[in-house]
Specification:
single chain; 363 residues; mainly beta; Methylamine Dehydrogenase, Chain H; 4-stranded antiparallel sheet; 28 strands; globular
Length: 363
């Protein structure tokens, strides 16, 4: 789950923060077979609170459990990169050692916006650098993109790692990809083709074999970039829908785009030039910010909605959607202070959903 999820979460939280009639947070709840474990994630703040763009943002399956990545709030609006380690049979996540400041942080921090599993229990991440974190926790910096680049997402595509983001350019940011064939030691920057002027920003990426799909948008106008050779060459096409894309998944030989618009959550499936819209009534309000594919090959999506009472007081709430034999099902995960931010599937079939405080587990 990618930076868009944090941006969407921030916008939802801002609505509540600016509303003098904000509703108090509630408790997390289970739904659709997910059992909630309140407080099972060690909280990433010294003062008891994190903003919507801090805390646990990404789960990466490793060695039968997950590693979590994000940031720890140190106070005075400061933060440092944070890593969570699985414990008790992957039923809780505890913070690993936090990096210090200055040179110590530079040498030890896995400061990645996006990450994927590597070989032998390692994790490869991308932000200001390509990083490698080995099973022991040692972090090595690899290739460094130009300083003014903004990283959004990373995927493994066949023989390559493919990262996407933007670079500054005349008239606005330009979408780019970084393609590495040696696990991040070196990488080539490739400018993605455009389909007209404007700030076309990638939001999410998914891959299966050498097939890669990147989704982005210009406001509420979605766009997809496709590659059939592990990121070496790209085509671009528009998606005829009013949609802010939160995630991309590969499901059953098709691509799945999910996000939201003013009417509620949106899911589309298909391929570039041939997208099918899921009946919005089956999804309801809110918007999708991320997701995963379970061991059976079915998508599980996470997102948020705003709950309002008769006086227009409001609070953000967490939602899960799962595709079953009868179609899409929707479950409410409660309205806790920290909303769901990441999802992952484990080799044993379990699916984990996480906020910065609570963990939901489906067997």
């Amino acid at each position: 789950m990618k930076k868009l999820g944090a941006i969407l979460a921030l916008s939802l939280a801002a609505v509540v923060a600016c509303d003098p009639g904000s509703l108090p947070p509630g408790e997390p709840t289970g739904a659709l077979g997910f059992t909630v474990r309140p407080g099972a994630i060690e909280y990433p703040a010294s003062d008891g609170s994190v903003s919507a763009y801090e805390g646990l943002m990404t789960l990466v399956p490793v060695d039968g459990c997950v590693l979590g990545f994000g940031s720890y709030r140190t106070g005075n609006s400061g933060s440092v990169p944070a890593t969570w380690l699985g414990g008790d049979g992957c039923t809780r996540l505890v913070l690993g050692p936090l990096p210090g400041r200055g040179l110590e942080q530079a040498a030890t921090a896995f400061a990645a916006t996006a990450a994927v599993p590597g070989a032998d229990g390692a994790v490869i991440g991308l932000d200001q650098w390509f990083y490698r974190r080995d099973r022991s926790g040692e972090v090595v910096r690899l290739f460094r993109p130009e300083l003014d680049r903004k990283v959004v997402a990373l995927a493994r595509a066949g023989r390559n790692l493919v990262g996407v983001g933007t670079r500054p350019g005349p008239g606005g940011a330009k979408p780019v990809a970084w393609v590495s064939g040696d696990e991040g030691r070196t990488a080539r920057e490739i400018e993605l083709p455009s389909d007209g002027p404007g700030y076309w920003s990638p939001n999410a990426i998914a891959a299966e074999g050498a097939q890669v799909l990147v989704a982005g948008s210009l406001g509420a106008s979605p766009l997809v970039w496709a590659s059939g050779d592990a990121g070496e060459t790209w085509t671009v096409s528009k998606v005829q829908s009013d949609l802010q894309i939160g995630t991309v998944l590969r499901v059953g030989g098709n691509w799945l785009l999910a996000g939201g618009n003013a009417a509620g959550a949106v899911v589309m499936t298909g391929a570039p030039g041939n997208w099918r819209l899921t009946d919005p009534a089956a999804l309801g309000d809110g918007r999708v910010i991320g997701g995963t594919v379970d061991k059976a090959g079915k998508p599980v999506l996470i997102g948020e909605r705003i709950e309002r009472d008769s006086s227009a007081s409001s609070r953000p709430c967490s939602v899960v959607w799962a595709l079953g034999a009868g179609g899409w099902q929707r479950g409410e995960l409660g309205c806790p202070r920290d909303t769901v931010s990441a999802a992952a599937s484990l080799p044993d079939g379990r699916v984990l959903l996480a906020s910065s405080r609570d963990l939901w587990i489906r067997p």
